[in-house]
Amino acid sequence: MGSSLVMFEEELKEISDIIERLLRDSNAKSVYLVDKDGQLISSSGDTRDIDSTSLASLTAGNIAATGGLAKLIGEKEFSILFHEGEKDNIHISIVGQRVILVVIFDERSSLGLVRLRVRRASEELTNCLDKILKRVESSTAKESLLEEITDEDIENLFH
Fold this sequence. Notes:
five-stranded antiparallel beta sheet, Beta-Lactamase, elongated, 5 strands, about 55% helix, alpha+beta
């Protein structure tokens, strides 16, 4: 799924609701949804002190680099990454091979809780992304039908 994907407001709202529920249920500090090109799709939580543009692009780069490591050892990809810091931790997961879910959390939560809640949110996000792709495919099919209509066909309709 490239950054050229267009979402309607209702789809973005559904994604935002899933992200906000994940934030609440996992007791995380912030949650980000990023496409594999490094574009921020949605975020929730305490995001004031974080440069979300940099976070999105660095996360996508991290996934790409880790994908290279995976291929070196014969794996397709590593779908989950975890970075533990002194105060904050980052849980990064690939959702439906299309987008990247980033959860930043501290001692108020645990890796186990985050992983559990991310699993449910990932299923919901995958379903939402599947709906978006079906809509895009449907509209692309309609556009290709319209492209087949010639100026002559239009003239014949009105005469």
